[in-house]
C-alpha cells in the first residue's frame, strides 16, 4: 500500500509499505478520509525524517479483525481516538489515554498513522460512525472536532450564552459549528480573510478581523442583549490561535464570571495578569484533547443535533497529492483539508 512519511523541513514522500495486519485486540481499517491537523503541521515543519506513516485523524471501514475482538466486525464504519494507552493504568481507566502512565503512543507518531490506504488500530480506540455521518465527519471527530466539543464542555457552555472563538483554523471552525449546534450566539475572530468567510459559512453570527482596532469593544457590543440586559463581555471564549494578541485580549473580552478554554499552543510570553482573573472572577481552563469516552458522547451529539463538519471542509486530495495537501494546509488560507486515499 501507499503511505505518507514526513522527511523534514516541509518535505514528504509517498512510499510503499506492506499492508498492516490485525494484531490481538486490533482491527485493520480501509481509510476513506483522513484530516490534516495542526499537530501534523508541527511535524511537517520540523527537521526530522519521521520514518513512519503520519496522520492521526482517520475514518474508514473495518476490513479485518484480529483475535479477542469483542464488538467490531468487518464492514463497520469507525473513527479512531488517536491517543493509545496501556488500558490498565489509572489514567486509562478514566479515559485519559493522553496521560497514560505506561504505554502512551499516538497514531502517526509512535504508531503508524492514517496517511495511508490502510491502518491498524486498537478496538478500544475505535468509535462507531453511524449513518448519516460522513467520512469527513468521522475524520474531524478523530481530533479537531471533538477537541472543540471538549473545550466547550469543560467550560459548561449553555445554549443561551454568547461565545467568542479566537482563531478560525479547523479547531476554531469546529468550535463555531459546535457552539451553533448548542444554540449559542457565536463571534469568530481571525486575521485571515478566507477563515473569516468560512466562519460565516459555518454559521457565525459575527466575524471580526483581528487586524482592525477595537476587537474587545466589538465583542462587548456583540454580547449585549437589548431588552434583557447590557452585559459587557461574552459568556464563553475558546482560544485556539496561540497568538499573543489574542491571549492579551481574552480576559478583557469576557464578562464577569465568564469562562475561557485555552486550546491553542503558542509562545511563552507572560500575557495574563492574575489581577485580571481576580477582577473578572473568571475561570480559565486548559483544554488538551479529550477523554476517550467523550468521543462516544460526541457521536451522540452529532446525531441528535444534525450537525456536520462538511461546511468547513475546503479541500480534498488523493494520497498521491499529499505534498499539495500539506502545502495548502500549511498556507492557512483554507478550512479543513482532507486526504481521501480511495479518491
Would you give an account of this structure?
- There is one protein chain.
- The chain has 343 residues and is α/β, with parallel strands linked by helices.
- The chain folds into two domains: 2-143 and 290-339, Alpha-Beta Complex (Quinone Oxidoreductase, Chain A, domain 1), CATH 3.90.180.10; 146-286, NAD(P)-binding Rossmann-like Domain (Rossmann fold).
- 29% of the residues lie in helices and 25% in strands.
- The chain is built from eleven helices and 17 strands.
- It has helices at residues 38-45, 90-93, 135-141, 144-154, 170-182, 193-201, 215-223, 244-249, 274-280, 292-305, 322-331; strands at residues 2-6, 12-16, 26-35, 58-65, 77-80, 83-84, 105-106, 118-122, 126-128, 162-166, 185-190, 206-209, 234-239, 254-262, 283-286, 313-317, 336-339.
- The strands form four sheets. Strands 3, 4, 5, 8, 9, 16 and 17 form a seven-stranded mixed sheet that branches. Strands 12-11-10-13-14-15 form a six-stranded parallel sheet, with helices on both faces. Strands 1-2 form a two-stranded antiparallel sheet.
- α5 (170-182) links the parallel β10 and β11 (185-190).
- The longest helix has 14 residues, at 292-305.
- The two termini are 15 Å apart.
- The mean pLDDT is 95.
